[in-house]
Design brief:
Blueprint: H1 2-22, H2 38-42, E1 72-79, E2 85-95, E3 99-116, E4 122-140, E5 145-158, E6 161-176, E7 181-195, E8 207-215, E9 221-227, E10 237-239, E11 250-252, H3 255-260, E12 263-272, E13 275-282, H4 283-288, E14 300-308, E15 311-321, E16 324-334
């Protein structure tokens, strides 16, 4: 119980510091909020409480890492908006009787862009990319309670400019396998820049998140609710309509709007241990896209996965607006089985 008290005390301190940091201005490094798991992407893009034997989900919450993932290798690829392509790899090992560690690398490439002078004269092209190296550790505090920490070293290279940052995720998960019930708390992206692009300081997207996941009886459906962006209550946005009128954009900041922009709803249909179909609804994504050619699919995401012999294969799809389709693929395998 001593380790539990220490962990909870550390978590409270991190929560207080996260709230204080997040109140000051806008953030950069928002690519850190893009999941590497097709399962999570299909469940709305953020989910910290889905318990699975899948190393790719551990970037959402380091407390989801466990000894059951020993020798597991995960590979991910995402075709993001525009010419952006993201990819990464992770590997996990158990540590002693109650611990596990994992290491990985994630690449975010944004394609080729035009280089211009201040007056708009095109002088050539350049590329922009971010690379995040991460190391995670988890520990079983009790049979049902697990804590974890993830440390990320980030290198950003935009044309001739370069910056470095260090970020930390701290998470805790309670899981009751008897009723398939999971609760999680995560403080994400604590840290700061080690090397700046220029004189100004870019802040990390610090966030506090809560998550609940549970199935009920013999029903092969598992439900999830994830609350995120909890460091700030007000998340206003402008509604521009469908473009058929000349009305000015309207500011939306009601209680209901703010509440639902903090919540992601998801469900998994799991007819067997080898197959799932996931569906998520992210109201913040839908409203963020209100200034674009939004379609009926905006805010929704869908994913599916299957385990075949030694491999797990996952795919997820979302279309936040008519001009942007995102697709993610995952592959997992356990090297012990080779």
């Amino acid at each position: 119980m001593a380790s539990l008290r220490i962990y909870i005390s550390a978590l409270v301190l991190f929560l207080l510091s996260a709230t204080a940091i997040a109140q000051d201005g806008t953030t950069a490094y928002n690519f850190l909020n893009i999941p590497s798991s097709s399962h999570i992407f299909g469940l709305g893009g953020a989910n910290i409480s889905t318990v699975e034997d899948d190393i790719n989900i551990t970037d959402q919450n380091p407390a989801l890492l466990g000894q059951e993932m020993d020798m597991q290798l995960g590979i991910n690829y995402m075709r993001y908006l525009g010419e952006s392509n993201f990819a990464g790899v992770k590997f996990a090992r158990k540590f002693r009787e109650r611990g596990a560690w994992a290491a990985g690398i994630q690449y975010f490439g944004y394609g080729e862009m035009k280089a211009t002078e201040a007056d708009g004269t095109i002088t050539g092209t350049f590329t922009a990319k971010d690379i995040a190296f991460n190391v995670a550790y988890s520990h079983d505090i009790t049979e049902r309670l697990r804590g974890g920490i993830n440390i990320k070293f980030i290198n950003s290279s935009y044309e001739e400019y370069n910056a470095m940052a260090l970020a930390t995720d701290l998470g805790i998960n309670y899981y009751n396998p008897e009723i398939d019930q999971s609760f999680s708390l995560v403080v994400a992206n604590l840290g700061g820049q080690i090397k700046r692009f220029h004189d100004s300081y870019d802040r990390l997207p610090v966030d506090v998140r809560l998550g609940w996941t549970q199935s009920f009886g013999t029903l092969p459906i598992r439900f999830s609710i994830t609350a995120w962006n909890l460091t700030e209550w007000k998340l206003p946005y402008y509604e521009t309509g469908d473009g058929t009128t000349d009305e000015r954009p309207q500011l939306k900041e009601s209680f209901g709007s703010n509440l639902f922009r903090h919540l992601i709803f998801a469900a998994d249909f799991i007819p067997s241990e080898r197959f799932y179909i996931g569906l998520g609804y992210n109201y913040k994504t839908r409203t963020d896209m209100s200034t674009y050619a939004r379609n009926i699919l905006s805010g929704f995401s869908v994913g599916a996965g299957i385990n075949v012999k030694m491999f797990g294969i996952g795919v997820a799809f979302a279309q936040p607006h008519s001009g942007g389709t995102t697709l993610m693929l995952n592959l997992t395998t356990n090297l012990i089985e080779f």
